[in-house]
Structures are given as C-alpha cells and as structure tokens.
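Example (one chain per record):
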Amino acid sequence: MPKGGASLESFRNDSTVKSVNVTELNRTALDGERAEFNPSSAEKKVLRFMESRRVEGSGKEIRHGIVEGVPGSAVTLFIRETYVRGFVRAGSSLYVIEPLGDGLYSVVHYDAGKFPKEF
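Predicted structure:
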C-alpha cells in the first residue's frame, strides 16, 4: 500500500485494490451509535459502534464497531475534530479511509482475499 503523499493513481498497479473513490464524509454523522457509510455510489453500509474512547488531552476519539448484517465485520475509526481516518472490514473487503482535505476522503477498497496468507 503506498504511504503518505502517494497519489490515488499509484493504487492502480496494486492487484489487491478493487477500487479507489473520493467521497465527502460528514464527520458529525459519526457521533451517534449508527452511521451510514457509502464507500462508492453503488454501495451502502450501516456502521454500528460498540465502543468509544477519548484520548485525554489529544482531541482524539477511537470508535470500534461492526458493519450491520455482516458477520465477522470490524470497524475502527480514529476521529479528530477536523478529520477521520480508519478501517472497515466487511467479509473479504477492506476499506481504508484517509483524509484528503476540504472535507474529501479517499476510500480504498482492497480485496483481502488477495492478501498474502500472513495477513
């Protein structure tokens, strides 16, 4: 996976990447117990948060949960006042959410079934 500063174009050569999308994310919509997650225009998932923890003095919150209706799913979001980053795992799909700025986020959809067995 390309590290910080890599262009979205650099993901095209990664055989584990199914798609890369740029989307808006309403940071305040993540404050409730449930939130809608649309990794692409054709997909809609509902996240249900089970645990939330604030990191004292840092302005950070870590939220853990699941994707409703997907057994074995997992959600981990790292939330600050101005941005969100994190991971959503649903079946063999892994979504990585990274801030791009101005309220826009990249959502990289990986096919975890193509990861090396060590993962």
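Caption: Residues 16-114 form one domain.
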